[in-house]
Amino acid sequence: MYKKLVIVIFSVNLFLFQPFFGQMDANKDNLKYDSLQILYYKNGNIKEIMYLKNGLKEGTNTIFYTNGSVKSIQNYQNGKLNGWYYYFLYNNNLQYKCFYKDGLLNGKYMEFYANTGEVSQTGQLKNGLNVGYQRGYGEDGFLTTEKYFNKNGNLEKYSYYLYDGSYIKGSVKNGKKHGKEVRCDENGVITTIFYENGTPIK
After folding, report:
1. What's the CA gap between 121 and 143, in Å, rounded?
2. Contact residues for 156 (Cβ-Cβ < 8 A; gap 6+)
3. Nearby residues of 40 by Cβ (< 8 Å), 6 or more positions away
4. Which of 19, 25, 53, 157 is most open to solvent, judged by the fewest CB atoms within 10 Å of its CB?
5. pLDDT at 38
6. How does pLDDT run across 66-77, given as a tens digit for each residue?
7. Which residue among 44, 77, 92 closes a domain?
8. CA distance 168 to 162
9. Cα dihedral angle (90, 96, 100, 104), rounded to 10 degrees?
10. pTM (predicted TM-score)
11. What is the pLDDT of residue 33?
12. Mind listing the pLDDT tens digit for each residue in 117-126?
């Protein structure tokens, strides 16, 4: 869907921004003007398409692999990443997508398995730091990990799940296990361990 979308976008951009069309000139004076810039690989395939406004990247920027398939789709405002960022593998599968604001990771992100394209991890970022819940999944969609980060990006809670029904749940303080950790085995037997600054309390 994203690749079809970008083809439509650039079919419009190529029409609107006719003043410059071709290989980027190394002369920096040419970058002072609003222009559509297209870079090429030695084999003649397009390497990157971007639009410059006052010499800074603006709008949708697309980077390609040497075979012509899309590598990444980025969005810029005043030379900084703003909006959704998509990264594709060489096999055309989406590897991850994330959201930028003023050049920093902000908002939701998702990672995907290379071969199946299924979701492998989801989370939330604020100014480049994990906040809220980060969840990991098996290729079949099974929830394998769940972590909670506070507003400062510090890990506070963790949970690990296995297919046999066993799990581990606990809390963290200052990067170390702290408080109660609950462990449940495949038979439903629960064991509780208490930690203080990473050390089990007897």
Report:
1. 9
2. 148, 149, 150, 171, 172, 173
3. 23, 46, 47
4. 19
5. 94
6. 999 999 999 999
7. 92
8. 9
9. -90
10. 0.76
11. 72
12. 999 999 999 9
Q: List the structure tokens of 58.
A: 């603006």
Task: Kindly give the parts of the chain with pLDDT less than 50.
Answer: 1-28
State how far the Cα of 16 lies from the Cα of 68, in Å rounded to an integer: 23
Number of domains in the chain: 2
CA dihedral sign, ordered 80, 86, 87, 91: negative
Residue ending a domain, choose from 48, 75, 92: 92
Residue with tokens 């998702």: 110
Range of the domain at 29: 1-92
- The answer to whether residues 14 and 7 touch, using CB atoms and an 8 Å cutoff, is no
Count Cβ atoms below 10 Å from residue 41 Cβ, excluding itself: 14
Across all residues in the chain, what is the average pLDDT? Answer: 85
